[in-house]
Specification:
Number of helices: 2
Low-confidence stretches: none
Largest sheet: 4 strands, antiparallel
Strand order of the largest sheet: 4-3-6-7
Distance between the termini: 60 Å
Strand content: 15-25%
Number of strands: 7
Mean pLDDT: 76
Order of helices and strands: HEEEEEEEH
Helix content: 25-40%
């Protein structure tokens, strides 16, 4: 019973400790800004003040400013770091680039999707209206039933095929047993 009473306290303690640890580590979670256009990759360091030194894979690269531009990137993964004063920020870069890519903005993608939906609904409506007219002109098709005067009528009521069993004819049907469903 004592363990059941202490579980909520333990959960509350874990929440408080986790929140405190996250607040202390906010500065270390600064994010790089990576922009990709064609085969050009532009990386922006999270620190904006002071002189910034860039290194890729442990090798220092000559670049001034908070942005580092990689022309003709070959899509090879690399460890990128920027050093500003005494703080070092590191990032694993795995950017896929291509030479013949076309960039689409959100408006172009929205237009393509809208046009596709409109064309699909247009075809749907056309198929509906053409199939609706076909029902009236079915005529004498193989699977359809005949209409109008060509229709066969049921046999008249006193038909000898459907006469009730008479007392003298019961022996014909005596061998048949009723089935229970």
């Amino acid at each position: 019973m004592r363990l059941e009473r202490s579980l909520p306290f333990l959960g509350l303690l874990l929440c408080v400790v986790g929140t405190t640890a996250q607040q202390d580590d906010v500065e270390a979670q600064a994010e790089f800004l990576v922009e990709i256009s064609g085969t050009t990759v532009t990386i922006t360091c999270p620190v904006t003040e002071g002189s910034i030194e860039w290194s890729i894979g442990g090798t220092k690269v000559e670049s001034s400013g908070e942005k580092y531009v990689i022309e003709n990137h070959d899509s090879a993964p690399a460890n990128v770091s920027c050093l500003a004063g005494s703080k070092t920020y590191e990032m694993y870069l795995n950017a896929r680039v291509c030479t013949n890519c076309e960039e689409l903005d959100a408006l172009a993608v929205t237009g393509i999707i809208t046009a596709d939906l409109l064309i699909t609904f247009g075809v749907l409506i056309l198929v509906y209206y053409f199939s609706k007219d076909r029902k009236g002109r079915a005529g004498a098709s193989a699977g359809g039933r005949p209409r109008g005067q060509k229709m066969q009528r049921p046999p008249p009521v006193p038909n000898p095929d459907y006469e009730p069993i008479r007392k003298g004819q019961r022996e014909v049907y005596a061998g048949l047993e009723s089935r229970g469903f």
